[in-house]
Amino acid sequence: MIILVINCGSSSIKYQLLDMKNEEVYDLMAKGLVEKIGLPDANITHKPTGREPVNIQVSIPDHQVGMKLVLDTLVNPEYGVLKNFDDIEAVGHRIVQGADFFSGSAIVDEDVLRKIEICCDFAPLHNPAHLLGIRAVSQVLPSVPQVVTFDTAFHQTMQPYAYMYALPWEYYEKYRIRRYGAHGTSHEYVSRRGAKLAGIDINNSRIITCHLGNGSSITAIKDGKCVDTTMGFTPLEGMIMGTRCGNIDASIVPYLMKKENLSPDEMTAVLNKKSGFLGLSGRSSDLRDMNAAALEGDVKAKIVLKKLTYDTIKNVGGFISELNGVDLIVFTAGIGENNARLRRRICENLSYLGVRIDEEANINAAKTGETIISAPDSSVKVAMIPTNEELVIARDTMRLASELED
Ligand code: ADP
Fold first, then answer.
1. Confidence label for 123 from pLDDT (cuts 50, 70 and 90)
2. How far is the CA of 288 from the centre of ligand 1 (A)?
3. For this structure, is 27 an active site residue?
4. What is the pLDDT of residue 10?
């Protein structure tokens, strides 16, 4: 089944075209990125598998034009990978926020669209863009089934004591204020892959997954189900990130708003866009720049690196207590996959538990691909698993679209 996976951002469309032979076996036919929608230098980068990538600068005023461009590119006689649009059998979309409406993926219909719309309040940058993407596909491919996969769905198994804030109950009832988590598709994928690689039965397991990228979250998983995660009402809660502050004392927010005369939107931008590695270092949101700056002796960059390690250790340690032990720890995403030093530091702090790292496997993990990086005598398995959210979306899309046909 040929499936188009779409990840619509506020000014971008990421796509992958996968030929799914079955749940496990698939060919990636092409992938690409439409960037800077609505700006003068809008462009598309298209990478057909096994061939040279192409980049085209073209006017892309809105998502509908962007989506049409993706489809036209996929059937282009020169660099396309399909004969015509009809070869696409289903389309899967990544949706950032599904609140407590969705505990799994869903076929798009009017009711689903209405619920995604309600969730726009909680993800104002993402959900409206996702809706634009779904509507644009409906225009161009009206008879193709569309499926939505939510970053929040995996976390719906959290219990009230984990997802409730200790705020007046009425705000939960009135505004649905509670913890929803994020990166759920990634946490689910890497926990399952990791368990398989480590020879652990997912249905009888205690796993901690560390998704460390521009956005970072850590999740505690018992018997394959999420019991807690570090992100909350929005993807701001938790640990230090590229531009997000993570946990801070909530009273800092009104205090700063008064002192600096900031509007709610301006304060939101400080917390989400001007904090984290960028805010502390004053240099960059990218960890590679922090590493380079720390090597030059930059004190603030060194604090960023220490804080990243510290926040990770603190959350992993808390979740080990919550799970009453741990069988497997998984690292994933840009930092988790590439930063061997951070992985080693975390594991060193778990030596009291008997965690031992295989330094060679750890150093080579980014090159090797998914790897067990713990030593054979380690009491806990540790793995590096590259995340693959698109594959989960494609699998769910294949499953739900096939059920429609039955
Ligand atoms: P996003 O959350 O946007 O998907 P990623 O998962 O791509 O982000 O993670 C981006 C982070 O990963 C950046 O801080 C970047 O510095 C880091 N990163 C990416 N590649 C490497 C690398 N080779 N070595 C160290 N850090 C890396």
1. confident
2. 8
3. no
4. 79
